[in-house]
Every structure is written in structure tokens, then in C-alpha cells.
Design a protein that fits this description.
Elements (H helix, E strand, L loop, with lengths): L1 E5 L4 H12 L3 E6 L10 H5 L3 E5 L5 H11 L5 E6 L6 H6 L1 H22 L3 E7 L22 H19 L3 E7 L1 E3 L7 H10 L5 E3 L6 E2 L1 E3 H14 L4 E5 L7 E2 H11 L6 E3 L18 H5 L8 H15 L3
Parallel strand pairs: 1-2, 1-4, 2-3, 4-5, 5-6, 6-11, 7-10, 8-13
Antiparallel strand pairs: 9-12
Helix pairs in contact: 5-6, 7-9, 9-11
Bound molecules: nicotinamide-adenine-dinucleotide (NAD).
Length: about 325
């Protein structure tokens, strides 16, 4: 039995592949490398138990043909669906991006699961499905009104997965997490800041007014939480918020930490406004009470996760 991972060459997907291989699994990954990098899979490709299939998940014919060739005779115990558009501003500017890469990828992977009799599915959802909510966000809050196309297509994906559970899946785990940081990242605030610093700017430009505050989780802890839920959640449809215990780190604290990690004394200039981009949720207060009651608690706070990720990013970017 093998495990199928979509978005395998991405930031989180590649760490997930490594963990599954560490656990002794045989893994087939799918990615069209729209944002992921084959470099992220160096370790996996040397393992002898991993294969990367380059295919567009938004195209069901391409998906079944290309994957069908590689996976002939293989039985899958589960699919971990982590492919999506991860550039939220681009999806806000052009709605078809999230329609294809965030929603259609889900619809098609469900169709593949139906045809190939794959009974278990894990899904990378997001805090963006909740939109702007007052107070701490719990899993059972609603009605849900996302403010980005990305959040909307993730929420629609959750709905499609729920309908598939009624028809042919046996078990589903939906993970709703906010910002994840760490090595191999392909986007996000730390990635953006280091990219800017690599160009040797006169000052560091930071989006918004610096007061945006969100929870951050290091990718190693995210993976711990995913496997904890996967192994221990008793529900047939498990859906859990995953995040740190605190209420987050501010953008200005992150920018200062990035400068420290890069050994830079540049000044910071803010572009202004209470949010980084259209569709950005400037403040997120996240409840992980449900996850805690399942017995998992993160060790790192948001700022510790940021510090660790900045050290990793500084090394990866040659500072
Ligand atoms: N990083 C975060 O902070 C965060 C937070 C919440 C949820 N998520 C979710 O976690 C998952 C992984 O995110 P990530 O941060 O690793 O992003 P990522 O961009 O690094 O990974 C996504 C991967 O999906 C692939 N992909 C996209 N569209 C595809 C398509 N049509 N066909 C095949 N492959 C396709 C990309 O090439 C990429 O490798 C995503 O579903 C994302 O929405 C991420």
C-alpha cells in the first residue's frame, strides 16, 4: 500500500513526504511545479521509495493518464491533498487561479479517489475559510464568509470533501492552519522579506503598517500535529484548527527578526494601511482547544517559530 501526496514539491508537501518516508511508507507525489521545486525533494528522491509525477491536478485527463502509467498495480491507503494556489494576492486579482489550483484540484483528486477506491483523505485547509471573525475562532463557528478567493475555494473544497464522504470515502481529516514557516518555504512573509534583502535594497519595504498580528507555526510542529490528528482523532470527519497557543506575532517584529538573522542594519519602511494586501486578514485569534483536548500542544510560540524559520531562511539564502 502506498500514500499519494498532492503538492509534494511544495513547502509543506515536501516535508510531509519526508515524514511519510521516515515512517516507512512508499509515497507517490504529484505536482506541476507551479510554485513547488524539485529541489525540495532531494532527500525523498534518493530514498528509493518515492516517485514524483509531474501532472496538472486541474486536468482530470492528464492526471489519470500520467499518474495511471506510474501507479499501475499500486494500491493507495490514503491521499494527502496539499496542492493549491499559495499566492493569495494573485488569486484575489485573478479568480480563475484559485478556481483551478485550489478547488478543481480538490474535485479531481476526489474523482480519482472514487475511481481508484482510495478510502482515506487528509486535506490542507486554512484559517482563511473563517474570514474576519471577532474574538477567538473555534471550529464550529459560522456562518463562514471568507474574504479571499483562496479562502472561498478552500471552504468549497471542504464542502466537496464532505459530500464525497457521504458517497465513497471512509475517513477524512481536515486540517485548518494559519501561517506556517520554516525551511523550503515558497511564499509568505519570511520568504518575501529575504527575497527583498537578497537584492541589496536601500531599505526594507514591509507591506501594511506593521501592526498586523497572526499566529505562526513552524512546519516541523505542523507535521507533528497532522500525524497526531491522523492517528488519534476518533471522528470519521475530523476537522481541527492547528496553531500555536499564543495569539501571534506582529509584522514589525517579524521584519526586525529577519533583519537580525540576515545580519542587516537596514531601516524598515512600511507601505501603510492595516493589511498587507486585498483579502489579507490583519488579525487572527485562533482557538486550538479541540486539538489540545485530543492531547497535542505546540512547544514553540509564534515568535519562536519565526526566529527558527528566519535562521533557516538566512542559511538557505546565503546570509
Ligand atoms: N503555508 C501556509 O502558511 C499555509 C497555511 C494554511 C494552509 N496551507 C495549505 O497547505 C498546502 C501546502 O501549502 P504550501 O505552503 O506548501 O504551498 P506551496 O505553494 O509551497 O505548495 C503547493 C504545491 O501545490 C502545487 N500545485 C498547485 N497547483 C497545482 C496543480 N494544478 N497541479 C499540481 N500541483 C499543483 C504547487 O506547485 C506546489 O508545489 C496548500 O494547500 C495550502 O493552501 C498553507
Amino acid at each position: 500500500m502506498s500514500v499519494l501526496v498532492t503538492g509534494a514539491a511544495g513547502f509543506i508537501g515536501s516535508h510531509l513526504v519526508d515524514r511519510l518516508l521516515d515512517a516507512g511508507k512508499t509515497v507517490i507525489g504529484i505536482d506541476n511545479l507551479v510554485s513547488g521545486r524539485e529541489d525540495n525533494l532531494q532527500l525523498a528522491l534518493q530514498s528509493g521509495r518515492f516517485e514524483l509525477v509531474r501532472a496538472d491536478l486541474a486536468d482530470i485527463n492528464e492526471l489519470t493518464t500520467v499518474l495511471g502509467d506510474v501507479a499501475r498495480g499500486v494500491q493507495f491507503e490514503a491521499v494527502w491533498h496539499f496542492a493549491a494556489n499559495s499566492d493569495i494576492p494573485s488569486g484575489t486579482a485573478e479568480a480563475s487561479i484559485d478556481l483551478r489550483n485550489t478547488f478543481l484540484t480538490t474535485v479531481n483528486i476526489l474523482e480519482l479517489a472514487r475511481r481508484w477506491d482510495i478510502k482515506s483523505l487528509s486535506f490542507a485547509s486554512t484559517s482563511a475559510i473563517y474570514g474576519v471573525m471577532p474574538g477567538q475562532i473555534h471550529e464550529d463557528q459560522g456562518p463562514l464568509f471568507p474574504i479571499s478567493n483562496y479562502g472561498a475555494m478552500k471552504l468549497a473544497s471542504e464542502a466537496a470533501i464532505s459530500a464525497a464522504l457521504e458517497r465513497f470515502l471512509d475517513r477524512v481529516a481536515i486540517f485548518r492552519f494559519p501561517n506556517v514557516v520554516g525551511s523550503r518555504c515558497t511564499h509568505g512573509i519570511i520568504y518575501d522579506l529575504f527575497k527583498k534583502l537578497q537584492f541589496g535594497p536601500k531599505y526594507l519595504e514591509v507591506l501594511g503598517d506593521g501592526t498586523q498580528r497572526k499566529p505562526y507555526l513552524h512546519v516541523t510542529e505542523l507535521l507533528d500535529a497532522l500525524f497526531h490528528v491522523w492517528t488519534n482523532a476518533p471522528e470519521r470527519l475530523a476537522f481541527y484548527n492547528i496553531g500555536p497557543l499564543d495569539q501571534g506575532a506582529t509584522v514589525s517584529a517579524i521584519a526586525q527578526q529577519a533583519l537580525r538573522a540576515a545580519g542587516s542594519s537596514l531601516s524598515i519602511r512600511y507601505t501603510g494601511g492595516d493589511r498587507g494586501w486585498l483579502g489579507d486578514v490583519p488579525r487572527v485569534e485562533y482557538s486550538i482547544e479541540k486539538l489540545r483536548s485530543l492531547g497535542w500542544i505546540p512547544r514553540l510560540g509564534s515568535m519562536q517559530a519565526i526566529e527558527k524559520a528566519c535562521r533557516e531562511m538566512a542559511e538557505e539564502s546565503g546570509f
